[in-house]
């Protein structure tokens, strides 16, 4: 049930859609025991979603309200959700069902939209994309499926009474929007600095409510999800052959002489 | 067998501290070492993330009070900055006498502020003539004005210059006999004066101070335990804090390993990475084995302490001994395998070697611990 | 009714159709031999009719124009409604859009409305067994995935600089359309449009990019990077270190968590070449690296590297290029 907004200056209830992804960045995950880089436990909260979680918590701190984290994924994805709870989200909802395996982004959005229809909210927040599939499709698809206004690539997010104020980042600057809640907003990287979960936040995460919904609980049509429901298909995947080192100048005399040699290269290659 | 599996929360905490240290503190470790001052900005970061909560039980604003959790936090801090690990280590050291021996009233009055990092606490035991021989202390306390007046000098006290309170040990004359007694001295008074901050080989970001107590006065409520309980209090405290110190040493060893292992994988000489050379592999193999062995003993000791069973005395002494030896050996080897770059401040590893040395000395010199281990064994018959 | 032809939803920036739009139209011209039917373009916005001529000269035979006040500034809902009107009129088999933030939103929402598949950030499009075969990079660009859309409408967003744009001459017949603007999308109001960097070359569209990294040393020193970019008519980029340090805004960032670019020439000044940065620029045709550290990883994959102080070399290069261009 979507709950539309009420009194001036009152609270904002948000649902943040998050995903657990494979950690592609170096230097992060620790392996317990010897604390080396753990390449087996490679799953983290999608870095783009951290900005959305932080934005939701900041809205709660300013206006009150509740932050719910929503995640479609296997049971193991609960780790990602716990991090959001440790950061300060109030409760979590997981959508877990084997029928969802192999869903493409649109199938995912469909499942999430059905879950959202069981929740009360004023605002749905998402990151702009996930670091694994990098489709960036979910926020816009959610808006479509829920028939809600959508503002993406948000570099600024605020609220005043019933109204959301969002700046959408463009190459030249930004577009300033206003829109009554409820709405879907996708926040851009760098909109804020996601906080580290505090020690007490980490200790308290397990005590916060975490509900798991199955496909049947929310009325998912199996034909619309999973690989059966996918509307795209992967035909092949290949590793990109690595680029190899080219020419490297170290012995060239003065900087001006080096610059001249570089200029020779650029003009010969016809790239300038 | 002790179960050394960390809980999900402990893993998440380790992850958070690691990220915090790498992202926020590592870029400035040289600056912290050069300035040789207490890094208040780091303490503020820790405060904001409730890290001081490891210093107290959850009934008083802390968290679960588990020594393992404290060790996990301190190890990850030390892995990037041993000096910064003292910020949490010393706070825990100062809080322990209160947690173990404070009255309900005292715990309620002091621990929440300590757990929140709002009040910083230090531990004032050592004196110029009383290091290993604690009973030789000469600071005295006499009853005065419904409280106590303390006179004496303490030296080598970590963080005394920023602490709001210091747990001080002083002798009280009872019927002609000296009874060591513990007092919580508030530093905000004319009778407490820090008159020296030491220049040190390492751990330079953790100020080590001398202070005088000149008719420093404490109210009766600030007497910890009973008159004459001081020795019991300090032994019980050090008994716990030496395990924390061991986890700091473990962090030093791991930090040195992090840097040197990354280096030998990248650095090439004679056409190949150093990591492929047998001489380097021999050294790294020993470094890793020594570190892991120390790690096992440290966490076994912490687990035993939390469980309240097992040869806690022996294991805590072994943990402190082995971990500090590992810190010194591993950091020295780390500098060696990094060659000329290992010696340069810019590359970060030499700081671990300078920082490591003190861990073999304080919290009970390693010689004392070797004796304690042997005596504990012989006492078993 | 069966679908035919390829429809491109065009995008306008700085008063003209974007390079990516023209590239899509040219590529459609090449593909339409297999797909059959015609190449048409959808032009959305106030005064959009003005762009029909350019679309025609790159090969579009029809320009569907939705010229409405509601489209004065981009809003996700109304622009989708307008694109749907074009799709309804053109009934294409294939829908192409540039892979910009706007393009992706429109593509996704049309796909959701029509139950179609969509593949994003495509770099290669070729005939497949039945439907088209689209290649797109993932996992930071280290893996190339070939995908196809299932169903009778195939939607793709295309990475700029992936296809050649070729002017073929020709005219597009203008077909004005009206769109039904759904109320939910209309609830978004535009309060202001701020152009702090008007006329700034978009990184994704640029043929040449000059980027600065931590080695530049300070926000003031970044001027040497910008001077080189100016003389080359290039866009200016930055590494994550520069953005994190606050020397330049995040819109400059090239890398895994920034922008992915594929210019003809990428000049990296004082950039070490971390995996994170590499992922954002490794598909550039030519990579030039200027760095004082001979061990910098970027030298392992740069086409041409020069070890030295960028504060000397870059100004010298700027001067050298200015001199040579003045002569010719």
Describe the structure.
The complex is a heterotrimer of chains A (272), B (381) and C (328). With 272 residues, chain A is α/β, with parallel strands linked by helices. In chain A, 28% of the residues lie in helices and 27% in strands. Chain A has eight helices and 13 strands. Chain A has helices spanning 47-63, 78-87, 105-116, 138-146, 199-204, 215-218, 226-229, 255-268; strands at 14-18, 20-22, 43-45, 67-72, 91-95, 123-127, 150-160, 163-169, 173-180, 183-187, 210-213, 232-239, 247-249. Chain A has a nine-stranded mixed sheet with strand order 9-8-7-10-6-1-4-5-11, with helices on both faces. In chain A, a hairpin with a 2-residue loop joins strand 7 and strand 8. In chain A, helix 3 (105-116) crosses helix 4. Chain B has 381 residues and is of the alpha+beta class. Chain B is built from twelve helices and ten strands. In chain B, the strands form three sheets. Chain B has a four-stranded mixed sheet, with helices on one face. The longest helix of chain B has 37 residues, at 230-266. Chain B is globular, with a radius of gyration of 21 Å. The model of chain B has no long low-confidence stretch (mean pLDDT 95). Chain C has 328 residues and is an alpha/beta fold. Chain C is 30% helix and 26% strand. Chain C has helices at residues 19-35, 52-57, 76-90, 101-114, 183-186, 222-232, 240-244, 275-281, 310-327, and strands at residues 6-9, 12-13, 16-17, 39-44, 62-66, 94-98, 117-122, 124-126, 133-138, 143-149, 154-158, 173-176, 189-195, 208-212, 235-238, 265-269, 286-291, 304-307. A seven-stranded parallel sheet of chain C has the order 7-11-6-1-4-5-12. A five-stranded parallel sheet of chain C has the order 15-14-16-17-18. Chain C has a three-stranded antiparallel sheet with strand order 8-9-10, with no helix packed on it. The radius of gyration of chain C is 21 Å and the shape is globular. The termini of chain C are far apart. The A-B interface holds A 27-30, 32-35, 82-83, 86, 196-203, 205-206 and B 6, 8-9, 11-16, 18-20, 22, 48-51, 53-54, 63-64, 73, 75-76, 79, 254, 292, 295.
